[in-house]
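Q: I'm teaching a short session on how sequence maps to structure, and I want students to see two examples side by side rather than one. Could you give me a first protein with its sequence written out and its structure tokens following it? Keep the formatting plain so it prints cleanly on a handout.
A: Of course. Example one:
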Amino acid sequence: MNTPPLRVTIWNENVHEQQEPSVAALYPDGIHGALAKSLAAPDLTIRTATLDEPEHGLTQDVLAATDVLLWWGHAAHDQVSDAVVARVQQRVWEGMGILILHSGHMSKIFRALNGTSGKLHWREAGELERVWCVDPAHPIAAGVPEHFELPYEEMYGEPFMIAGDAHLIFMSWFEGGEVFRSGFTLQRGFGRMFYFRPGHEAFPTFYHEQVLKVLANGIRWLKPTVDMPFPKTHRPEPLSPIAPKDFALHKVGIVKS
């Protein structure tokens, strides 16, 4: 039996590309367009969406037809509708995977799923980043070397305010001396989340072979694994007989019948 392609939506706020010529030159089709082209594969059906579309391109129908959502945001987190964020969170609870990139750590959806501020130290100096794989057995790390280098990146440094149940896969060291938990996963409801740090808009990070390999692995690991309603629905019929009880339901306290 043929497995249907994984349905992927790549969301990008698409602000820097419109406002900064250097970013537009680096990503002429937008970061979303570059990723859609580089990640294209026979087992994936990829669509893109941006902030300026109606409902940010993330309508109920689009999300219902999305297995994995990629999210890149930086300059316009506050412009994302709370209603759309709630809609995305609900889909993750139901089983949709979400891959949050770079400055998405300050997005509303990242904070909602983590239950944290997402804050960290940062510096934009175009410094070397060495990404270390600390869990080479994880499927997201398949085929990724023990470490790889990005010659120019924005620095993110610890402490990083993330959830205590985060599972760490990648750790970064920066030329200026800082370290950072740059790749981790969370389980939220029936859905999975993967955060991956590299990808500042000023640098060609999303053309890097190993970064693209991590993203490709991440998409496939994030695919939905559970097919059932969430939240669980009312089940009026018990699995086993329930003995009669000597009280009345829907009263204040326990009232003798």
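Q: Perfect. Now a second example for contrast.
A: Example two:
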Amino acid sequence: MYDAIHPILGSKKASEKFQKGAGGDISMQIDIIAENIIINALENENVNILLISEEIGEKYIGDKQKAIENQNILIVDPVDGSNNAVRGIPYCSVSIAYANGEKIGDIKRAVVLDLISKDIYWANKGEGAYLNEKKIHVSDFNQSDILLFELNLPKKNAFKNIERLLPIIQHFHRLRILGSSALTLCQVACGSMEAFINLRESNRLVDVAAGYLILKEADGKFFSIKGADFDLELSIKTKFPFIACNSNLESFLKEELIKMGH
């Protein structure tokens, strides 16, 4: 995957547009190339699985009935951060999660490949999270420390939302908007930043499925803007805002979100 995608980052070929993908965004050549690599690999391995992917939507690979019976699901964003990738901005990734079941809590394995550094973030449920061979953990910083976070807002009412978030924003030292949800969840997981506040209702399951498990296995927290745990269906149609953070900030963020009326 890296060898096929990395050389075309920032190129004209990467940015050639296709029709709108199943996830709702316009698919670009780089997305299609990456997705086809994954589909071909699955077909060559003779697996029976439901593929949920950004561009193609939902597609059964192998024996559909066996895939349904076994509840094997692969959730993929072939290039998370496509707009960064086609413009040569060095922050994009491949996100792959495997689940045995129908809910987000049934995700068992996850991999996020950094398409710039070639670093691999990965996790197996119950076994911790890793960056390459090194075990990772969220930071232990709290409100008295220098904190970094990413904020992702819908364009509609953006300034109004920022005003409402000021009690939270003022506790952080720096705000980032980087453009690959999968990678940012991994940044929180390895302690490079403390939180990721994503208020976009259009945020897709495929963007965060792998990062979700990696963060959880690194002892991070992942919850709704109402402060509740998720019990989401694994589907291309599943879209939701979320909060991700280290364990020390969980209570503070939940309390502030409740005050905001979320």
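Q: What should students look for in example two?
A: Point them to this: The mean pLDDT is 90. Also worth mentioning: The longest strand covers residues 72-80.
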